[in-house]
Amino acid sequence: MRRASAILLVLAACGLDLLGGCAERADDPQLTAHPDAWLQEQAADFHGEYVKAGGAGSCAGCHGADGRGQEAVPGCWDCHDGPGGHPAGWVEPTAHGADVQADGPDQCAACHGEDFRGGWSGVSCYACHDGPTGRHPEGWAEPSLHGAYVRTGGVSSCTPCHGEDSGGGTSGVSCYGCHDGPGGHPTGWAEHLQHGSVAATGGAERCTDCHGADYHGGWSGVSCYQCHDGPTGRHPEGWADAAQHGAYVRDNTPASCESCHGADYRGGTSGISCYQCHDGPGGHTSAWQYSQHANYVATYSALSCRPCHGDAYQGGWSGISCYRCHDGPGGHPGDWVDREQHGMFVVDWSALGCRSCHGPDYGGGWSEVSCYQCHDGPGGHPIGWRGRNRHGTYAETYGIHPCAACHGQDYRGDWTGVSCYQCHDGPLP
Asked: Which of 76, 154, 216, 385 has the highest CB neighbour number within 10 Å of its CB?
């Protein structure tokens, strides 16, 4: 009896030990469906690689059809912005855009498909972007879109994709395909006819976005003053010199000035009237119609008038014929060939003033009109005047006093240098 009781006590003790052992192991196993390295980003078993390769469809059984988890199973949304696996806030351009800029769009193909139109993710990059690179919004190629962006933010924001030299970078799209540089101007923009016409049409104020409010560079780093003489950015340096813009107008006519200075040349968009310095669009100074142009022609010849008034001096692009006031390019008045006109001029002022046009020897000069065509010399007498029947008869008829105007009151030569005493014993014939 005592032996049976002892056996029962031993069995009871063993039973308690066994029950105690089972109770201690009940919470021990942590059974999961994923491998140990499932959350380790660099591991081969990382869950991101699994999802990229096979999609998130197999996750629905545990994490729920919407990926938000169920019962004790966590949801994908706890860490991601959806079952696709992107981190929270991924849809923001600054988030996924920066990632694509850094590593290129190829990494997106695993989920969004080789053509970036959805893949297993069902989300097409074209839903928001205008191409497979998935960077720019729809319509980005339009100048009004990307141009406005560059003007506001500068071209530095383009370099992560298009490269520091804007030659393509990770995007493989060079800005030089359409532009003459990262500044965004079209090819050939540096030519003055290109950017000059735009500034003339819309005003130079539109240039301030890139070149700065003072036109000294702004974010572009290109100062308008490198080539131009003022903030309007239109004329080259030194343009105010008559030799510069005068030559331009002679070659291109003042019609090319109208776009900035107005059709009436009184300011236009430039606010600078040509009449501040000139007597009109022709470019002559205010007093040109009087002694100025006469002295100019006498000094430089009428050949310099041809670019504006035409080779025949009949108007050219200026539309003003020299013959309106003169008898020809020489600048004499209409009836100058009448001896009463030019003859009296020579009598009053001497023939020295004729040299500037007719040459020091009066043989023609730049005017190509020789005084010897009609006269026997610069004195203005007709051919054959030295014969006594010519000048002698004149003196007998009109007296010798008219001779004093040229030969001097003492008849010894004066400005003519011809003394009556060379042939006569006095002023009498």
From this structure: 76
